[in-house]
Amino acid sequence: TDRIALQMIGSDGFVEGQSARMDLLVSRAADGEGLAGAQVKVKLISTVAKPRILAEGETNGTGQVSLSCTLPVIDEGTGALIIQTTAGKETAEIKQLIKKPVRKAAG
User: What order do you get walking across the sheet with 4-12 strand by strand?
Assistant: First the structure.
């Protein structure tokens, strides 16, 4: 079977409480050719809650998909996104840490 690769080719955000946009490319690892019809899921994992899916989609004819989601605010602990793709029996994933919003100093 052909191994697959997942790349983030564009992104915006990754701050708690804000929306995040991810432009993703799924390709065959051997020749870099884009893979159409691959399933892509964006899953939130955190130190305080069960994993949950925030967005999902399928790649287009060139192996690309854009997904957006609003990131929750995690009061205690930290969170990350696991972006997973599946094509046939092959899977690939990348991890993206979620940043805390910058708190304005009181005063």
Answer: 4-12, 19-28, 64-70
